[in-house]
Amino acid sequence: MHELPATQSLENAPVLTAPDGSAVRPLCHLSGLGSFAHFQLEPGEVAKAISHATVQEIWYIIGGTGRMWRHQEGHEPTTQNLRPSSGFICGPGPGSLSQRLT
After folding, report:
1. Residue 14 neighbours by CB under 8 Å, 6+ apart
2. Among 9, 39, 71, 91, which is 20 to 30 Å from 51 by CA?
3. Domain for residue 51, yes or no?
4. Over the chain, what HEC string results?
5. What digits encode the pLDDT tens for the residues 50-59?
C-alpha cells in the first residue's frame, strides 16, 4: 500500500533544530527514499560543519547571501558563495564536511 501524498505549508510546519544548529521545518517525507525541508539561518549565524554517512543533500537558496565551506576526503576544501537562485549538492562519506556561513 502506498502512503498518501503529503501536503505541508511552510507556515504550519514545526520548527526544529537541525544537527548543524540551524532552524529546520520538515515539509515532506517518502519512507526509504528521501525528504524535503526548509532550513534557515539568521544574519550572522554560522552552522556547525557536519558529515553524513549516507545522506546526500540538494540545496537551493531562496533568499539572503552567504558562503558554504565544503571538504570531501581526497579533495581540497572549497568555499562556495551562495545567493538566491543558486543550487548545489553536498555528498556523503567519511571526511565530507559542510558548513553554512551567513
Report:
1. 25, 26
2. 9
3. yes
4. CCCCCCCCCHHHCCCEECCCCCEEEEEEEECCCEEEEEEECCCCCECCCECCCCCCEEEECCCCCEEEEEECCCCCCEEEEECCCCEEEECCCCCCEEEEEC
5. 888 888 888 8
Cα within 13 Å of Cα(85), Cβ side: 0
**How would you class 12 by CB atoms within 10 Å of its CB: exposed for 0-12, middle for 13-18, buried for 19 or more?**
exposed
How far is 37 from 17, CA to CA, in rounded Å? 12
pTM equals 0.76
What was the pLDDT predicted at 31?
83
Residue 25 is part of which domain span?
Answer: 12-101
Asked whether 84 and 61 are in contact (CB, 8 A), the reply is yes
Total domains present in the chain? 1
Residue 5 lies in a domain: no
pLDDT < 50: residue spans in the chain: 1
Type of residue found at 94? P
